[in-house]
Amino acid sequence: MDGVRAEPSDDEPGQGALFDWAEPVPAAPSRGGFRGSAVARRMLDVREVYAEPAALASPRGRQIMAGLPGVRVTEVPSHWRIPSLHGNDGNVARWTRIKTETLVLGVKRTLETRPNGRSADWIAPGPSNGCAMACAYCYVPRRKGYANPITLFTNIEAIVAHVRRHVRAQGPKSEPNQCDPEAWVYDIGENGDCSVDALVCDNTADLVATFRALPTAKASFATKFVNPDLLELDPRGRTRIRFSLMPPDDSRLLDIRTSPVAERIAAAADFLDAGYEVHFNLSPVVLRPDWQRDWAALLTHLDDVLPPRVKRQAAAEVIMLTHNQALHEVNLGWHPKAEDVLWQPQVQEAKRSRNGALNVRYAVEIKQRALAELRTLLTAHTPWLRIRYAF
Ligand code: SF4
Questions:
Q1: Could you name the domain of life of the organism this protein comes from (predicted)?
Q2: Residue 94 CA, ligand 1 centroid: distance in Å
Q3: Cα–Cα dist 305/317, whole Å
Q4: CA distance 262 to 281
């Protein structure tokens, strides 16, 4: 059994769109063969490529296209604005089809590393923008619209050279902090999911290889997809993979097209044994009736199934839900059940972001109370799980 079931009807978005939840399939070591598997193809089955000419002509662009024989290519002046792809028109069936069947190749023109200080010390220029998954709370499509499929940046040599220069310029980390006691941590997946990118492209592999040779730094990325091909990348402790977790009922409702939570947890030991540091993102924490009961069950499951070697090195970030009015309105059009839990004006307060968007987050006292409750649950059920930060 491959853990896959047929797509549900178009008007019934839900977690089961890709995977069967009843039987989690632990990630098995592979020899790079997962890319061609049925699960991988259900996530990404590229039928058309939109590409900037320079991206097509680049070595990475040519390598990607060599793996996509016969796929139709449309040249575009810029990966940023492709009217037939981006924007919020169309229902989720069209969005998910675009996410599954369309790939964009572009050149990343601004190479900039930004300070962070919470999850990572630095946000590196990402090797992609956009995602084949469709989490209802995702902020990544905010600039291109919800159907934002994966754009792969083909100038990976320039990204790698930039990162190397930045790491060397920092010198050794002199003081431990919440990101890491010794290494400068660089988030390499701010605007996508590196595990899914790796289904069609070696950008993730190149960055893992880069950090393998940088003794003062460490790559880090969050993921909701278990890609066993990553087990072959030999990170030698210099890449931190952060499996995002939430109670399975929430995930089925909100984490559209992702790997089941139980599968992400079951993969942790394989990734540790393959040389990754394995952390967890407890995020987003969504407050709704009985959330404490379901988080307690999730933490109990973690405690039951993770082997001691995973627990010894594990840490977690806790991130409370933030939402956005524009996204709320989009979601009402295709997945209103998600909005029943994501949009709760009676407990949320609005904040205008620097770019003018109206974001909402739990009111301060409610958030502080919930974080305190969650910390109590963590102490009770997963006392070994160090919290790097809770936000
Ligand atoms: S996996 Fe991450 S990037 Fe992809 S849709 Fe979900 S939240 Fe967004």
A1: Bacteria
A2: 17
A3: 20
A4: 14
Average pLDDT over residues 242-258: 97
**Token pair for residue 244?**
């995002």
Distances (CA, A) of 160 to 115, 147, 218, 342: 17, 28, 13, 37
Residues near 314 by beta carbon (within 8 Å), at least 6 away in sequence: 268, 278, 279, 280, 306, 384, 385, 386
Cβ 134 under 6 angstroms from ligand 1: yes
Is 0.85 surpassed by the pTM of this model? yes
246 ligand 1 Cβ < 6 A? no
With CA atoms as reference, report the closest residue to 228 among 14, 26, 6. 26
Q: Where are the domains of the chain?
A: 15-390
43 CB within 6 A, ligand 1:
no
* Residue 116 CA to ligand 1 centre (angstroms): 19
The CATH number of domain 15-390 is 3.80.30.30: yes
- Residue 348 binned pLDDT confidence (cut-offs 50, 70, 90): very high
**Could you tell me the two tokens for 17?**
């769109």
Strand (E) or helix (H) holding 186: strand 184-187
The Cα–Cα gap between 176 and 93 comes to 47
CB-based burial of residue 228 (10 Å sphere; 0-12 exposed, 13-18 middle, 19+ buried)?
A: buried
Does the C-beta of 231 come closer than 6 Å to ligand 1? no
User: How close is the Cα of 175 to the center of ligand 1, in Å?
Assistant: 32
Q: Which of 127, 277, 123, 233 is nearest to 187 (CA)?
A: 123
3-state secondary structure of 250: helix
CB of 140 closer than 8 Å to CB of 130: yes
Confidence of residue 354 (pLDDT cuts 50, 70, 90): confident
pLDDT in tens, 36-93: 899 999 999 999 999 999 999 999 999 999 999 999 999 999 999 898 888 887 778 8
The angle that helices 291-305 and 261-273 make with each other, rounded to 10 degrees, is 30
For the chain, where are the alpha helices, taking DSSP H only?
38-43, 53-57, 59-66, 92-101, 156-170, 194-197, 203-212, 248-254, 261-273, 291-305, 308-313, 325-334, 336-342, 364-381
Residue 172 alpha carbon to ligand 1 centre in Å: 32
Query: What is the side-by-side strand order in the sheet with 150-153?
Result: 72-75, 48-51, 102-106, 150-153, 128-129
Residue 45, both tokens: 């089955």
